[in-house]
Amino acid sequence: MTEQFFNYTDKFVEFTQTDKELLEAALTFKKADAKTELVVFDEPSDELFFILKGCVRKYYVKDGEQITTNIITENNFIGAFTSLITGSKSNETIECLEPLEMLILTKKDLDRFYKEIPLMNEFIRRILEQTLIQFQKALTAFILDNPEERYEKLLSENPEILKRVPQHMLATYLGITATSLSRIRKRIFKKI
Question: Exposed (0-12), middle (13-18) or buried (19+): which is 102, by Cβ within 10 Å?
Fold first, then answer.
């Protein structure tokens, strides 16, 4: 299980064997069923999740509607970062869309590793840079692209998500209604 995790970390930094042993001892393996909430709205979260298998989404609720802001699959981190960093209650929910296998790192252990494993600071910085780039791309797409262009980018960059996420959740992720998404899919299908 941790081999997959370290294959991922090796893309960013080269932890020593001692570092890996410290990390391995702190990582908790857990399984969760589909529809399980890893992070619950209005509760604090002190865990960072590394997805080994499965798919999760992050969403907010506005006027009773769920708005999906992030969809994460294997070999990625997800967490309620504001809650994780500040200890405040989460204003978002992270929900399993499929049965999930994950490794969990607590804030307490993460803070400890900043001191005990010097490369942890660089690793987390690099992960946060990747996260910032993803958010910037998403924001830019919402500003510059129309809904059909956003869907086409998703189709070309991450086609497996289209098979793994229900259409109504994809629609909110793209900032449109499920009906609009259905029309866009029909137009694109006709082009092919």
Answer: buried
CA distances from 158 to 16, 19, 45, 50, 165 (A): 33, 33, 28, 19, 12
Residues 89-116: pLDDT tens digits? 999 999 999 999 999 999 999 999 999 9
Residue with tokens 């900032």: 175
Q: Which of 157, 143, 145, 151 is nearest to 172 (CA)?
A: 151
**Paired sense of beta strands 47-53 and 56-62, if any:** unpaired
Q: Which helix (H) or strand (E) holds 122?
A: helix 118-144
Q: Which amino acid is at 108?
A: K
Helices 178-191 and 167-174 pack at an angle, to 10 degrees, of 90
Residue 30 in contact with residue 106, Cβ under 8 Å?
A: no
The pTM for the full model equals: 0.91
pLDDT at 192: 63
Tell me how far apart the alpha carbons of residues 93 and 97 are, in angstroms, rounded to a whole number.
12
User: Contact 23/29 with Cβ under 8 angstroms?
Assistant: no
Q: Pairing state of beta strands 28-32 and 100-106?
A: antiparallel
